[in-house]
């Protein structure tokens, strides 16, 4: 009997206000409270609350046979506490059913696993502590930011005490192998690896309402039939979705909530399928082999690599400047500084700087509050410069002062480049307009 592992990612970053060059050193509050509040309220109404209500009904209706798992970032949980406590209450109700598992991850949905082992471990500890405090569960399975994984990252996750980890079943990693089995980390085989079935997961997230898709409309019957037709030797189907698929990415009018309501019924009517939580999967199934991932993979974009966050010089420069502060933060005990430090680490800030186009670019623009990646870069670097000034006051380090000056120079340089690009874009638009008229 095949197990279906139904997992959801929930994340919200603390978005920055428009932080200008002249705010540096004068105003240390970085956040757009109005945007954070209104966006969260909208998504809570469209997605979190109605979807949680349906899941609770399903858990109670099927008396423990329907099971799901959540990867909820610490920053999302903090925003629920600030702006929508009723969402926290609805997750509490789900936790009490015993049918829901909460995974651990990085507290602020950060890229710390790529830069600093100590910071990464601290982020994981803070997140697990938050989950234990809110839901009374100690996570045993880890879901890194955007499912970023490599052999070395997995080795560290195992050293932290986690039993399993989930990542993308990328074709360039698995080759001819199927994602529908349990694997182990190539360095430490004690860590079991679950691979996301990206084809079936993306059918729901991205193709569900696409009328040009050959499989439209996608019904619960059809979806379950596809899963049943997968070779019976396959053991587990990991469906990992952005939770906002329900009601936000796929609007209520598409029928996505009807799908969520009837999918479990069709699965549980089948004699070939059942639902399992990740912790149950890693206990029940024996791994078939190690999976070798020498370079990091993620679930983002067509490449399934790190290019969504570190694919251009803007992103790399901003990330490099952020990681340079790691050595100071290890000994910093100021609560406000540490809070801002956590929020600065969110991978979203680098995602906003992406210069990708075509299909991937559409996805990046969907979540992006900035008009351009250059605007995102300048805003982030302004905030980072002010943050460095505050560190300088604590540590009184001349090196920090010099670095701040270099930040300011970089921002001014990028601002000039942005003006040139805007002028060139305006020129190209005028040229194109003249050609169209001819």
What low-confidence regions span 5 or more consecutive residues with pLDDT below 50?
A: none
Integer-rounded radius of gyration: 23 Å
Give the total of beta strands.
10
- The CATH class assignment of the largest domain is Alpha Beta
Annotated CATH architecture of the largest domain:
Alpha-Beta Barrel
Outline the biggest β-sheet: 5 strands, parallel
Could you estimate the helical fraction of the residues in percent? 40-55%
How many domains, in number, for the residues?
A: 2
Categorize the overall geometry. Answer: globular
Please provide a written account of the structure.
- This protein folds into two domains: 2-291, 7-stranded beta/alpha barrel (Alpha-Beta Barrel), CATH 3.20.110.20; 309-437, no CATH class.
- The mean pLDDT is 92.
- Helix 1 packs parallel to helix 3 (85-96) and helix 8 (220-229) packs across helix 9.
- Strands 1, 2, 3, 8 and 9 form a five-stranded parallel β-sheet that branches. It has a five-stranded mixed β-sheet with strand order 4-5-7-6-10.
- With 438 residues, the protein is of the alpha/beta class.
- It contains 18 helices and ten strands.
SSE map:
Layout: E1 2-10, H1 33-61, E2 68-72, H2 74-83, H3 85-96, E3 100-102, H4 117-135, E4 141-142, H5 151-159, E5 164-168, H6 171-174, E6 182-185, E7 192-196, H7 198-205, H8 220-229, E8 236-242, H9 256-269, E9 273-275, H10 278-284, E10 289-291, H11 307-310, H12 313-323, H13 326-329, H14 335-344, H15 348-351, H16 358-366, H17 373-395, H18 398-437
Helix pairs in contact: 1-2, 1-3, 1-9, 2-3, 8-9, 12-17, 14-17, 17-18
């Amino acid at each position: 009997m095949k197990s279906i592992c139904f997992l959801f990612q929930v994340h919200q970053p603390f978005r920055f206000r428009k932080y200008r060059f002249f705010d540096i050193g004068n105003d240390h509050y970085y956040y757009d409270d109005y945007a954070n509040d209104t966006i969260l309220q909208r998504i809570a109404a469209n997605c979190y609350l109605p979807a949680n209500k349906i899941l609770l009904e399903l858990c109670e209706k099927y008396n423990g046979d329907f099971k799901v798992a959540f990867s909820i970032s610490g920053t999302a949980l903090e925003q629920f506490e600030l702006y929508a406590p009723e969402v926290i209450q609805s997750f509490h109700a789900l936790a009490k059913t015993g049918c829901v598992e909460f995974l651990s991850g990085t507290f602020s949905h950060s890229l710390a696993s790529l830069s600093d082992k100590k910071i990464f471990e601290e982020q994981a500890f803070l997140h697990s502590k938050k989950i234990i405090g809110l839901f009374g569960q100690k996570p045993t399975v880890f879901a890194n930011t955007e499912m970023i994984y490599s052999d070395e990252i997995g080795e560290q996750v195992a050293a932290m005490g986690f039993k399993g980890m989930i990542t993308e079943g990328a074709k360039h990693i698995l080759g001819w192998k199927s994602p529908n089995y349990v694997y182990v980390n190539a360095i430490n085989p004690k860590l079991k690896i679950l691979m996301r079935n990206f084809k079936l997961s993306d059918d729901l997230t991205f193709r569900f309402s696409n009328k040009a898709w050959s499989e439209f409309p996608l019904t619960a019957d059809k979806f379950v039939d596809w899963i049943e037709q997968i070779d019976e030797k396959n053991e587990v189907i990991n469906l990992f979705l952005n939770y906002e698929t329900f009601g936000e990415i796929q609007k209520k009018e598409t029928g996505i909530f009807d799908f969520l309501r009837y999918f479990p019924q069709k699965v549980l009517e089948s004699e070939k399928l059942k639902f399992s939580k990740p912790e149950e999967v890693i206990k029940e199934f024996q791994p078939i082999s190690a999976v070798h991932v020498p370079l990091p993979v993620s679930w983002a974009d067509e490449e399934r690599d790190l290019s969504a966050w570190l694919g251009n010089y803007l992103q790399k420069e901003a990330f490099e400047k952020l990681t340079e502060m790691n050595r100071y933060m290890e000994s910093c005990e100021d609560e406000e500084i540490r809070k801002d430090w956590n929020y600065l680490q969110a991978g979203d800030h680098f995602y906003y700087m992406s210069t990708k186009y075509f299909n991937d670019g559409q996805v990046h623009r969907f979540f992006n509050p900035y008009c351009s990646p250059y605007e995102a870069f300048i805003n982030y670097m302004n905030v980072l410069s002010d943050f460095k000034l505050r560190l300088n006051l604590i540590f009184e380090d001349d090196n920090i002062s010099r670095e701040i000056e270099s930040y300011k120079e970089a921002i001014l340089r990028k601002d000039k480049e942005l003006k040139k690009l805007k002028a060139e874009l305006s020129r190209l638009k005028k040229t194109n307009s003249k050609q169209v008229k001819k």
